Amino acid sequence: MDYGTLFIQQILNGLHIGSIYALIALGYTMVYGIVKLINFAHGDIMMVGAYIAFVMIAVFGLPLPVAIIISMVSCAVIGMGIERIAYKPLRNAPRMWALITAIGVSFFLETLFNILFGASSKPFPTISLEPIQIGQLQISKIMLISLGLSLLLMVALELFIKKTKLGKAMRAASEDAQAASLMGISVNKTISIAFAIGSALGAMGGILFAMAYPQIKPLMGVMPGLKAFIAAVLGGIGVIPGAMLGGFLLGIIESLAKGFFSVFWAEASSWADAILFLILILVLLLKPSGILGKNIREKV
Description:
Keywords: Amino-acid transport, Cell inner membrane, Cell membrane, Membrane, Transmembrane, Transmembrane helix, Transport
Order of helices and strands: HHHHEEEHHHHEHHHH
Distance between the termini: 59 Å
Shape: globular
Strand order of the largest sheet: 1-4
Low-confidence stretches: none
Number of helices: 12
GO molecular function: L-isoleucine transmembrane transporter activity; L-leucine transmembrane transporter activity; L-phenylalanine transmembrane transporter activity; L-valine transmembrane transporter activity
Mean pLDDT: 88
Membrane topology: Multi-pass membrane protein
Strand content: under 5%
Family: Belongs to the binding-protein-dependent transport system permease family. LivHM subfamily.
InterPro entries: ABC_transp_permease, BCAA_transport_permease
Largest sheet: 2 strands, antiparallel
C-alpha cells in the first residue's frame, strides 16, 4: 500500500473512531453546559450500554437494532437515576465535592460489572459484512454504519437543541439557571433530560465501540471516556458543535499516529495515547476555552 492510500485509509479509520468519541463527548458537554460538572462516570455509562446490548443479544436473542434501543433507553434511565441520587444533593455544594462523587460513581459501576460479569473480556456479537474494496483502499461497512448513525444522532441532537421547546429551555438553563427558573423553566427537569440524552448517546457510543473492537470488559470505558473528555475540551466543552469537531479531530490524530506516522517513526503507535494527552495539556495552556468555545469572565 502506497503512502497516499495509507493516509486516506487512516483518515477514514480516524473518522470512524472519531465519531464514537464525538458521541461520548456530547454527554460530557451537555452536562457541563448546564450544571458545570465534569461527569467522569460518563465513560462507564458507555460500558454499561455495551453490556446491556450484549445481554439483550447473547441471552435474550434480540436483534441488534432492538438491543440498541433497549440499551439507550436503559442508560437514559440510569443516567437520570445517577443524577438524582448522586449529583442533585450536591448541586449547591463546592464543585470539588461533585467531582469526587463522579469519580466514586465511576468506580462503583466498574466494580459492579466486574462482580456481575467478571474481569475477563467477552466477545461482542456483531454483524459480519464484506468490506468495500476500492483499489488498495478498504472501507468497512461497519465503519459506514457507525459513521452514519453517529452523524444522524448528532444532527438530531442539534435540531432538538435549536428547534424544540425543551431544547430552548436547556439553552436558557445553560446561560443562566437562576434566570431560567424565574421565567418558569424547570431547571431540575432540564438537568435530568440532559443526563438522559447524554447517557443514551454514551450507550450508543459504547455499542459502536464494541462493534469496532468486538469485545467488552468492565474497564472498557476508561480510555474512550478520557479521550472523549479531551475531545470535548479540544472542541470547547459546553459547546455541542465543539464536541463533534473535537471528537473527529482526535480520532483522526490518533489513527494517523497509530497507522501512518508509525511508517516513518516506529514508536509513533505506542506514543499515540501520550500525544492525545499532550494535546489536552496544550489546549488548557494555550486556549482553555477550546476551538469553538468562548472565554467567559467571572465577576468577583
